[in-house]
Amino acid sequence: GRARGVNLFTVGSGNIGATNAARVLGRPFGALVFVLDFLKGAVPVACAVPLAEALYPGSSTAFGQPDVLRVSAAALAFLGHLFPVYLGFRGGKGVATGAGTVFVLAPGPAALAVLTWVVVLFVSRIVSLASLAAVTILVIARLLSTPAAFSSENLPVTLYLVIGTGFVVLK
Predict the structure, then answer these.
(1) Cα(23)–Cα(19) distance, integer angstroms
(2) One digit per residue, pLDDT tens: the chain, 171 residues?
(3) In terms of Cα–Cα distance, which of 5, 105, 120, 18 is closest to 65?
(4) Residue 23: which residues within 8 A CB-CB, separation 6 or more?
């Protein structure tokens, strides 16, 4: 936005996310913001375990199962998007960045959430409603598709999805 002389904090919804960027700057810019935010979540989660293993073999299990490391990377990327230091802790709503993290952590429920998002957006034309429906379906799909979703083996990802959904709803 700044490159085009637009301060997204002062126009449209005042949010720096993809939806406001698309409304204010046009759909191509909104799509670019979405892709970059998505990658901001997906890349750290996908790289956390391989990078840890490359730096120090065996380190990916130093804190227990490798999902703990993945979820830690996801939480840091997500919270960094919601509350970025360089923007005075005024970040986006976390939907795109959270989607990136979730596609790596729980691809099946994530795909169902995206399908929900598309259907609700098509029917309602309201992005925020589609996002809320998607995160709700995400958690429900995780709970229904994962045997013992709250067992110690599945707990890190399940808690991340539940808490992350709470943050998206609050934001």
Answers:
(1) 6
(2) 888 888 888 888 878 888 888 889 989 999 999 999 999 999 999 999 888 888 777 766 666 678 888 999 999 999 998 888 887 887 778 888 999 999 999 999 999 999 999 999 999 999 889 999 999 999 999 999 999 999 988 999 999 999 999 988 887
(3) 105
(4) 12, 13, 30
Q: Which two tokens stand for residue 171?
A: 């934001």
CA nearest 36: which of 90, 86, 92, 100? 100
Cα–Cα dist 61/70, whole Å: 11
N- to C-terminal Cα separation, the chain: 21
Smallest Cα–Cα separation from 70: which of 51, 92, 96, 54?
51
| Residue 96, C-beta contacts closer than 8 angstroms, at least 6 positions apart | 17, 18, 33, 34, 37, 38, 41
